[in-house]
C-alpha cells in the first residue's frame, strides 16, 4: 500500500514510535520509506507535493488490547479522535496520523465482546 505523506521521516517516526512498525527500507533522497507491521504488512510512505496527504483513506490496525493501547498512547501524548467505544465498524479507538489519516485500533476480544449491538 502506498500512502502519500507530507514528510516521510515524520510519518516513519510516528508509526514506529506509536504503533510499533519497523523500517523495512528507506530512500530519503527519493522521499520513500517502507514500514512494516508484525504481520509483515508493508506501507510505503511517499513524500508528495500534492495536497493528497490525509485524504480518503483510513487504516484499521489490530492491537493486542485496544484499551491498553489507548492508555499507553495517551500517556505518550498521542491525541485521539475517539477513545475506545462502539463505532459503526465495531469496538475500538480512532486517532489520526501526522497527515490526518484516520487510524482505527481494534482487538479481537473487545470486538467480539463489545463490538456488536
Going by CATH, the homologous superfamily of the largest domain would be 2,3-Dihydroxybiphenyl 1,2-Dioxygenase, domain 1
Poorly predicted parts:
none
Query: Based on helices, strands and strand pairing, what is the structural class?
Result: alpha/beta
Which CATH first-tier class of the largest domain would you pick?
Alpha Beta
Q: What does this molecule look like?
A:
β2 (22-27) and β3 (32-36) form a beta hairpin. The chain folds into two domains: 1-52, 2,3-Dihydroxybiphenyl 1,2-Dioxygenase, domain 1 (Roll), CATH 3.10.180.10; 54-117, Roll (2,3-Dihydroxybiphenyl 1,2-Dioxygenase, domain 1). The strands form two sheets. The protein has a four-stranded mixed β-sheet with strand order 1-4-3-2, covered by helices on one side. The chain is elongated. By secondary structure, the chain is an alpha/beta fold. The protein has helices at 8-19, 66-75, 108-114; strands spanning 2-5, 22-27, 32-36, 42-47, 58-62, 80-87, 90-96, 102-106.
Topology:
Elements: E1 2-5, H1 8-19, E2 22-27, E3 32-36, E4 42-47, E5 58-62, H2 66-75, E6 80-87, E7 90-96, E8 102-106, H3 108-114
Parallel strand pairs: 1-4, 5-8
Antiparallel strand pairs: 2-3, 3-4, 6-7, 7-8
Keywords:
elongated, 2,3-Dihydroxybiphenyl 1,2-Dioxygenase, domain 1, alpha/beta
Amino acid at each position: 500500500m502506498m500512502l502519500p505523506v507530507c514528510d516521510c521521516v515524520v510519518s516513519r517516526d510516528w508509526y514506529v514510535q506509536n504503533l510499533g512498525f519497523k523500517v523495512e527500507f528507506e530512500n530519503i533522497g527519493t522521499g520513500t520509506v517502507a514500514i512494516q507491521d508484525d504481520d509483515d504488512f508493508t506501507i510505503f510512505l511517499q513524500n508528495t507535493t500534492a495536497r493528497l496527504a490525509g485524504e480518503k483513506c483510513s487504516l484499521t490496525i489490530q492491537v493486542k488490547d485496544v484499551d491498553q493501547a489507548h492508555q499507553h498512547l495517551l500517556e505518550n501524548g498521542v491525541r485521539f479522535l475517539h477513545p475506545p467505544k462502539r463505532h459503526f465498524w465495531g469496538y475500538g479507538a480512532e486517532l489520526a496520523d501526522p497527515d490526518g489519516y484516520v487510524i482505527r485500533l481494534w482487538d479481537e476480544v473487545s470486538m467480539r465482546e463489545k463490538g456488536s449491538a
